[in-house]
Amino acid sequence: MTADSGQPKIAPSPPVMDVLATGLGLVESPRWHAGRLWFSDWTAGRIHTIDADGHLDTVVEHRSLPLCFDFLPDGRLVLVSTPERALLTLEADGSLSTYADLAGLSAYGCNDIVVDGRGNAYVNGADFDFATGPPAGGRQPGFVALVRPDGTATRVTDDLAFPNGMAVSADGRTLVVADSYRSELVGFDIADDGTLSGRRVWAALGTDNPDGICLDAEGAAWYADVPHQHCVRVTEGGEVLATVPVDRGAFACMLAEASDLHIVGARWPGAAGLTTYADWDGRVWRVAVPVGGAGWPAR
């Protein structure tokens, strides 16, 4: 009984979730673009689109771990290729062409990408062997790099333990980076030339490990968490507004312009099993939420 009203306290009902697809591999990097959800299946080496009825189309086949992508302002898909150590664009004839050379950023390749409204791409990487884990010590080798529209790539911040999902605010002035190993969302001010300053903890997340993220029209962030198997909506400053549980690792989430949150998840075997595990049972869910998406990744 509550002290103020004398009425029973009713627990909130779990959200109603639609399962749009099952039986996939390690699914990641969801993007809402041109009225459809796009996402990658890392273990299959494919990028798919999926419609509201769950019909899948494969738009890219490219073997890469990771296989993260976004969209340039001209509408071209741009993906992070570990084998090529480059950003590649999907051309109108279905071919992939080199957009930017990333070889100078890290010997271990890059991870996630977000492209803002001016065509600046931000890519990140942990800069260590994922299978063996991060180096000891407080300062960590993870970084974010700026890839300008002319293809030049320059590191613009460092000392991230494991940089994962990234998002840019609707006004184009703030970059938010999920640092999975430090359990925080990190904020940066974006200058006119795309460089970063004003580093701060945008939200401390306790013991959660944020992976893929997106921002909504009220300025809050949604983040996915693999080990804790949920997605969480949080304000700048760390107030938790909503939690959506799932039955396996939540790798990333993406809002549509309207009130739909899309979640991609799979059964996670741990770093040691990444290249040999087969029973991922990757899934795509859709759940209604109060506020639609804003900013970037692409829409």
**Superfamily (CATH H level) name:** TolB, C-terminal domain
Outline the biggest β-sheet: 4 strands, antiparallel
In the CATH hierarchy, what is the class? Mainly Beta
What is the architecture at the second tier of CATH?
6 Propeller
Radius of gyration: 18 Å
Quickly give the structural class: mainly beta
Question: Count the helices. How many?
Answer: 0
String of helices and strands: EEEEEEEEEEEEEEEEEEEEEEEE
Number of domains: 1
- Fraction of residues in β-strands: over 45%
Question: How many beta-strand segments?
Answer: 24
Give start-end ranges of low-pLDDT stretches.
1-11
- Sum up the overall morphology in one term: globular
Mean pLDDT: 93
Descriptive terms for the model:
299 residues; mainly beta; 0% helix
Give a written overview of the molecule.
This protein is mostly beta strands and about 300 residues long. It has a single domain, classed as Neuraminidase (6 Propeller). Helices cover about 0% and strands about 50% of the residues. It is built from no helices and 24 strands. It has strands at about 15-25, 25-35, 35-40, 45-50, 55-60, 70, 75-80, 85-90, 95-100, 115, 120-125, 140-145, 155-160, 165-170, 175-180, 185-190, 195-205, 210-215, 220-225, 230-235, 240-245, 250-255, 260-265, 280-290. Strands 1-24-23-22 form a four-stranded antiparallel beta sheet, with no helix packed on it. The chain is globular and about 45 Å long. The N and C termini lie far apart (about 45 Å). This is Sugar lactone lactonase YvrE.
